[in-house]
Amino acid sequence: MISNAATLSTEEQVHRARKGLRLFLSILLVFSIIMNTAVILTKSIPLIVVYMFTPALSSILARLLLREGFKDVSFNLGSAKIWKGIGLAVLIPIIICFITYSIAWFSGLAIFQLPVGGSLEPIFHMLGLQHLPTPLNFILIVVVTGILGSLINLIPVMGEEVGWRGYMLTRLVNAKVPRPVLVSGLIWATWHVPIVIAGLYVEGPSMILTVAGLYLCIVPFGYIIAYLRLATGSVWPAVIIHSAWNAVVQGPFARATTGNHTEIWVGESGMITALIILIAAILVSRRKLIK
């Protein structure tokens, strides 16, 4: 009797997860088509921020319609494991970008120039930090941007992560979908493609190469985020790493880099970026950094 009940419970869990997953993806598809149409017709950057909330909104509607509740999103911050995950979430994007861009700068594929005129410049002038040696100045800019950017970007990024890692990933796992993290990454990458084609995100000299590079960067990065989410049991590390990544790669590193067709090598669809993210994903998943 106990064995049968356990089997039934597992079957019910799989069934509910698959039902939730189908509903979530269906709602997301409708919302995404509507928002992509609006973004492409208007070329509006602010609408892209609204678009970022479609995964969270889709997951909320799925939860309400299926009466699933919100407890498993897990906004818990009450354990050392979660705070370790948050620390890694800030450090990993900074390390990936430093390695990626250093390769491009020292190889001559891109040119380094100390970024000026950024949002942090008044703070640096007030503290007298603009007189520091260029390398130290840039490192400080990146670290501060990574920390502050994680907080500034928190709300729009949460619009994605509450849906992606707060709902879709766990449903893929519970639904026994083969290679759930890979599937999650592929869906996440595909969701970005329309705004890339519209020329409003990660532009490059070749649309085909840009889209291919986007998949090569996002899918392995999805493994890193999934590891942080599943290892800590909290959605916060996923939100923070996504926020920190957007802050540093779109901020100081992008502004510090010039040259012809650098998008091929660095940035969010660059080939060097993709290689370093892949190596990072393998190291993170195999070394079990959070115990």
Automatic annotation (TrEMBL):
Gene Ontology biological process terms, A to Z: CAAX-box protein maturation; proteolysis
Keyword tags: Hydrolase, Membrane, Metalloprotease, Protease, Transmembrane, Transmembrane helix
Molecular-function annotations in GO: endopeptidase activity; metallopeptidase activity
Pfam families per record: Rce1-like (PF02517)
Record has Hydrolase as a keyword: yes
Transmembrane segments: 21-41, 47-66, 86-116, 136-159, 180-201, 207-228, 235-253, 265-284
Residue ranges of every copy of the CAAX prenyl protease 2/Lysostaphin resistance protein A-like domain listed in the record: 151-248
Protein name (Swiss-Prot/TrEMBL): CPBP family intramembrane metalloprotease
